[in-house]
Amino acid sequence: MTTLAITELLGDGIGPELCAAVHAIAATLPLDIAFEPVDLSLERRRREAGAAYDQVVASLGRTKLGIKYPTVTADESPNAVLRTRLGLSVIHRPVHSIPGIASKFKEKLDLEIVRVATGGTYDDPGQRIGPDVAVSLRIVERRPCTEAARFAFELARRNGLSVTSSSKHTIQRATDGFFEAIVRDVAAEFPDVPHRVELFDALLAKICLRPRDFAVVLTLNEYGDFLSDMACGLTGSMGLGASGNYSFTSSGEIDVALFDPAGGTAPDIAGHGVCNPTAALLAFALLLEHARHAALAAALRAAILGAIAAGERTRDVGGALDTLEFTARVRDALGKSLP
Ligand code: ATP
Fold this sequence. Notes:
single chain; Isopropylmalate Dehydrogenase; 10 helices; alpha/beta; ten-stranded mixed beta sheet
């Protein structure tokens, strides 16, 4: 059996409890997994931030595969530092309705949001020009747009889905127009994948009205940020999702893939053993899928969703189980479904 080496970025708050849940699940898989832990806790970053990030970069340079637990944003934003240090340019955020999780939205939602992870309005905090005016730069670059578009079309092709690219290209003609032109060029390489363009404001309304019309949605940075939160709100599960963050080689192949659960460090419940590990386990499922263990990823996802649908829930989603109990239910279901 070949060894699957995974860098794990240990953080703060509930991080250790989420990490224990992932290890419990990893131990039941028919895989030889070698975790390479890197301490990214605030305490270490305060002591030796440079060494901590250098260690992350070195480890991921070897493994190319990582999982990151929540970190406190204090002196710096670890996510922003990692994005720059690792050149992460694309974020994939699946958002699916979870049967058993209460939501005001009654339709089924199955979105694969693919977002350019850099630029847009987020790289420039802007500046005041005199007392009454402020300006900021909006940055759209060919390379991350091309990488995001290729990622989206490949994802759609693998899963028999369509791609909707969305922006405000009729108003932001230079920037969003450039983005849509890049997407059109990439779409031409994927004639078998249906592609359409929606204005972003219309897209938000249409997803609420007819969510089944949308599958892979490809956007620039800030639109993807807004859409991800709106979609999570619709499913009633802000903290239950996970994302993949990717960097690419100069020839366009995925280089480093780093997966992380949604949600923060939850300091109010950290150390009590009651946090919900669903997002961390879904991040691990995304990691397995990327590492070409699609069947194991699907089995893990089914075990997580099956447990929730059967009423096995932690307190934050209306149940009574603690972290270990919920993880054990998932592990048992997974164990039964594996050959
Ligand atoms: P941070 O500053 O790291 O973002 P925060 O407490 O401001 O931390 P979250 O960590 O997202 O933000 O927590 C918001 C609320 O959701 C808290 O009450 C927290 O306990 C709860 N929460 C977050 N993650 C989980 C989880 N995995 N399981 C259960 N509750 C959670």
